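note to self: dont lose this again. the chain is below, predicted strucutre after it. 44 aa total, dont forget to put it in the shared folder this time
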Amino acid sequence: MEEALDALALKPGGRYLDGTFGAGGYSRALLMREPQAELLALDR
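---
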């Protein structure tokens, strides 16, 4: 998971899309790493 988040090069206030929300692990980790990010999470 850390490698995926590193690859995103998160920015304060950045906007991100999680298209495979599931249990929310990646979304949670992203927001913990960059709390000012805006995140839209989708799942079927």
